[in-house]
Amino acid sequence: MPIDHDLLVHVETSLARAQDGATVRRWAHPDAIFVVPGFVLGLDDYAGALDVSEEWDRIEVEHDRTVRVGDDAVAVVSRFTGLRGDRVYRADTVSTYVDTVEGPRLVTHQHTPEWTPDDEPR
């Protein structure tokens, strides 16, 4: 059965707004992999990091597109913007979901931080 687009957007937004690891644990496959700046983490380590990380003051998620990558898998491409105090973090993200008997489950997630020429080492 095809994964419902509206449900995926809801799940992806819920994960982006998650203030702790519980939401990630709910929607991720037990073997999920998370690729974030400087780390490749499994579910337990990623969810644990969220449990102790500082909450965002504000976030925005723009869902650019979904791409079917198989009969039972869909990738969601988004732009994440988070604000903590006066710090802004922007990243393009790709999350891949598989359809399971429990519903869609996240299997891979990657953040690619926004790059600007000011980021170049001198």
| Quaternary status | single chain
Shape: globular
Beta strands, count? 6
CATH class: Alpha Beta
The DSSP helix count reads: 3
Give the CA-CA distance, first to last residue: 52 Å
Derived from helix and strand composition plus strand pairing, the structural class reads alpha+beta
User: Mean pLDDT, rounded to whole units?
Assistant: 89
Rg over C-alpha atoms, rounded to the nearest angstrom: 15 Å
Query: Any guess at the CATH architecture?
Result: Roll
* Strand proportion: over 45%
The percent range for helix content is 10-25%
Biggest beta sheet attributes: 6 strands, mixed
Unreliable stretches: none
CATH topology value? Nuclear Transport Factor 2, Chain: A
Strand arrangement, largest sheet?
2-1-6-5-4-3
Give helix and strand order, one letter per element, not per position.
HHEEHEEEE
Indicate how many domains the architecture comprises: 1
